[in-house]
Write a structure and sequence with these properties.
about 260 residues; alpha/beta; Rossmann fold; seven-stranded mixed sheet
């Protein structure tokens, strides 16, 4: 992740995202999205690295799927502090560790992990080539990537996409699905599989917007005030526009380090 990403998720956004996706979750789909990414993967007793772990909700789901241990890392101090407190309250310190790291090389020895996970967090990383090189390094031979991320359509951003970025207030470094595939191959991964789930999330995002205008409206307005509520509703509307146009393209990613 970039240095700018360390302070971009303010308290209002953290509150809003959890209202939409569930306590402890900062990305679409909540627990079910993790289960979908991990479908068919045996996590029995494996040590997983979650890059961009957020508040740790993802890591708790990984434990329920059979993981032995999860090490979650993030570059945002406030998020890490909140995530650590969540894990302490859940009594899971002995199985989940959330660590604050600096952007750049991963602070782990070679071949440390059985699987590297990420959920819509690597879109903040500008140097995907260096990122996947580091992921390959810290994976054990035969280890796997299983992740979700946001990508873009080919070509320059439209005004709608630029407006979405403006409403988000976050720094995005999006690439196409084809570029993602190239970066993984160049890093040395094999058995690469990329699944475009734009249509799936497009439908979900419209449902989320409807909930924000309906059942969630009083809670959001109470927590964030009228101005905050109006901002995030417009933010979500701009999200549905770029999803409808196919410019923002969520995807799932699987790849393997050669044995």
């Amino acid at each position: 992740m970039t240095d700018s990403a360390t302070e971009e998720y303010d308290g209002g956004m953290l509150t809003l995202l959890q209202m939409v996706w569930g306590e402890g979750f900062l990305s679409p789909g909540g627990p079910q999205a993790v289960r979908d990414i991990m479908s068919g993967i045996d996590l029995g007793s494996k040590h997983i690295l979650d890059i961009g772990c957020g508040l740790g909700g993802l890591d708790q789901v990984l434990l329920t799927l059979g993981a032995g241990r999860v090490t979650g890392i993030d570059v945002a101090p406030a998020i890490v502090e909140r995530g650590q407190e969540r894990i302490r309250r859940a009594g899971l310190n002995n199985r989940i560790e959330i660590k604050l790291v600096e952007p750049g090389p991963l602070p782990f020895p070679d071949a440390s992990f059985d699987l590297v996970f990420g959920k819509d967090a690597w879109l903040h990383i500008p140097d995907k080539v260096a990122h996947f090189s580091e992921v390959l390094r810290v994976l054990k031979p035969g280890g796997r990537i299983a992740a979700g991320d946001w990508m873009k359509s080919p070509g320059p951003y439209s005004r709608d996409m630029d407006y979405f970025f403006e409403m988000e207030g976050l720094t995005y470094h999006l690439v196409t699905l084809a570029e993602y595939d190239t970066f993984l191959h160049e890093a040395g991964f094999v058995d690469i599989r990329l699944e475009d789930i734009t249509e799936l999330y497009r439908v979900e995002a419209h449902g989320e917007l409807d909930r924000m205008k309906g059942e969630l409206a009083p809670m959001i307005a109470d927590e964030l005030g009228a101005e905050g509520y109006a901002h995030f509703v417009e933010d979500w509307r701009s999200l549905t526009v770029v999803l409808d146009k196919g410019e923002l393209r969520p995807a799932r990613i699987w790849a393997t380090k050669p044995a």
